[in-house]
Amino acid sequence: MSSLAKFALLSLILFKLWLLSAFSIEEVLSGHDDLLFLDLAQHIINGEWLGDYTKFTLIKGASYAIWIAMNFYIGLSLTVSQFFLYAVAGLLLVRQLSKLTLKAWWIVLFYAVYLFNPIIDLVLQRVIRDNIYISLTVLIVVGLIGIYYANSLKKSGAWAIFLGLVLGLFWLTREEGIWILPLLFLVLFYFVWVTYRQEHFSRLFFAKTLLFLSPLLILILFVHTIATINYHYYGVYVSVDFKSKEFLAAYGALARVGGLEQHPPYVPVPVPVRKAIYKVSPAFAELQSFLESDTWHGDTLFAKSSLCQFYPICGHDIYGGWFIWALRDAVSYKGYYQSAASATVYYQQLADEINLACDKQQLNCTSPRHTLTPLLYARDIPGILKATIRGFNRLLGLQIAQEYNLYYYGVVGTPQQNVYTITNNPIAVPDTNTKIIPKKPVLVFSGWLVNAGTPKKLFLQVNATTSNLEKFTYERQSSPDIAKHFNAEDNLYLNNTRFRLETECIEQCELGIYDNQTFLGAINISEIQSGKGYSSKNKLVYIHIDTIETQKQLETLENNRNIGYLSSIKVALLRNIAAAYSYIFPALAFIGLIAYLVSLRAAWLRKQISFLLVLNLGILAIIGTRLVLLAIIDTTSFPAINDVYMSPLYPLLILFAGLAVLDAYQGLKSHISPFSK
Fold first, then answer.
1. By CB neighbour count within 10 A (0-12 exposed, 13-18 middle, 19+ buried), where does 308 fall?
2. Which of 27, 62, 191, 371 reaches 20 to 30 Å from 104, CA-CA?
């Protein structure tokens, strides 16, 4: 690669990084995502692995928490390091492709299309694992290319080790890693097949075969290493709770009860089924008061109305993928998450009792299940097909220009200074140039919130009465007067318990009060008055509203805010680039498919299958596999056709188009034209 090409690639990276400096990380109140990863990373930084065992500790793979902790020690902004991971993945790819005597302009153009992919801008604003998942997906493709084009066994072995480590991180970043297997199996089988044709059953054949399979062995070793660490700290040999055989057995047993007539759409374990199970399973009966209560415990009430905003269904059952969280909430509420061992014993007992009742025909059951996969019925097929088509349309960029938005209203669920310390990242808060001024009428509440019984961290969030999370910002402020009132001047929480909350949601909204992830109560926003206090039934939780700023007062504050001229230029450029990709993605798909058909024709005439042809088939296979999986989830459980879940597919589409064109070009240069008879 020429010096000019290298300079062009570096310039593209620096320019994109300059554009990304227009925004900061958006703090999002999500105990299952952003705050969870920050909390786990904080424990790793403190040398405590993932901290004390709770219902949250092992719900997700450890890769992203490890990444955040490593980033803390490196000292880079989390946004910068995650962008660099994506950029470096692309550089490794074009470095491999440069060995194919490609024109420098082609490499630079390909990398520019890859680098300015707007999906990266969307996910980088949150502390979510998809930030590295996208790059790890690209690095898997890079590893496969590296193994094939290495000019020695030693270099192929180094790439195999690299691929194995990437696969380990990938597998423990998200739980649905199975979608990548078609690519791995196709390409690795191709490696073995080509080697057999060259070496037959020689010693070199077996040596190369072992090398090609070593990434899978390293992946297995990686997963078992994490499981061993978890066993040391928590007494359970699992990498992720959701993959433990006891939990899968319990969830599978619950989901197998009842037939089609008892399972309305999106409800894995409906009320009639739960009532039947309560009668035959003492373990499940322990959860009845929790699961059937109208009082909001953790995620349960949210689960009972969450699909109202997404689908034409609403009621008082526990819907879709939220049942799994409601179940864990209930088990935690009964005290079984005091240790991993007690939770494991409980889930196995629950599975045994339900399965025994099924065997005795005390319950109407399907065949035994040990999986989180939802039951599929014939009625789901049209929905899955529609969701798949919707996913393809979204992938082709037909919606990205309309939905692309650089700014969200963050909610602060943890002290801003603490988040800044862990991520080395500025946080999107009010009155800074990283937040667009709201155009809707806004209310601003100021006051203080305490738990007089046991002073500890509480926080607020705004919910619509349908229980979906509304946009708002929430920041804590210094409150030495509150600490002095409670004779606890040294208490860090009481010294930081005043708050300022800003929301657009004025009608049909509640101000929810939380202790960690537990809901303590709510006040209807329309009923809140300034200068008044509100307390819980036990009188321990108390919130006092000092002021409520009116729309007129806010208009004055808005006029004093300034997002900055330079930042506005960056925002405009990023949005224009995103709009362009709504045309680029369909063009890439069309060009890529045409080029792939040309390559197929050339392969047929040459009677020789190229590596790139197999690699591109694998990329197409995993794009289709993930889209179908997301369509099934979207049709049976919860909304899954969205930019975050689909984010790994956008760079894969770019890779497919570029590699297909390259393969077709090489075919056209061969002695046999793909268009000859």
1. middle
2. 191
The residue written with tokens 């009972």 in the block is 304
SS3 410: coil
Instruction: Dump strand ranges (E) for 442-482.
Output: 443-451, 458-464, 472-477
Please answer whether residues 39 and 51 qualify as being in contact, where contact means their C-beta atoms are separated by less than 8 angstroms.
Answer: yes
In whole angstroms, what separates CA 62 from the centre of its chain?
A: 13
The pLDDT tens digits of the residues spanning 54-82 come to 888 999 999 999 999 998 888 888 888 99
Cα dihedral across residues 346, 347, 350, 352: positive or negative: negative
User: What are 241's two structure tokens?
Assistant: 């709770």
Strands 518-524 and 509-515: antiparallel
Residue reference for tokens 């190229």: 610
Instruction: Report how far residue 5's alpha carbon sits from residue 111's, in angstroms, rounded to the nearest whole number.
Output: 11
* Interatomic CA distance for residues 221 and 242, integer angstroms: 19
Pull the structure tokens for residue 93.
Answer: 């790819």
Mean pLDDT of 175-184: 94
Model confidence pLDDT, tens digit, residues 107-158:
999 999 999 998 888 888 778 899 999 999 999 999 999 999 988 889 999 9
Please state the length of the chain. 677
Check: CB of residue 543 under 8 Å from CB of residue 448.
yes
- Long-range CB pairs of 63-68, under 8 A, 24+ apart, other chains included: 63/129, 63/132, 63/169, 63/170, 63/172, 63/173, 64/37, 64/128, 64/129, 64/131, 64/132, 64/173, 65/37, 65/40, 65/41, 66/41, 67/132, 68/37, 68/38, 68/41, 68/127, 68/422, 68/423
C-alpha dihedral, 503 to 504 to 506 to 512, nearest 10°? -40
Cα separation values, 529 from 100, 284, 533, 538, 543, Å = 70, 43, 9, 21, 12
- Tokens matching residue 503: 């929301």
Beta bridge partners of 518: 515
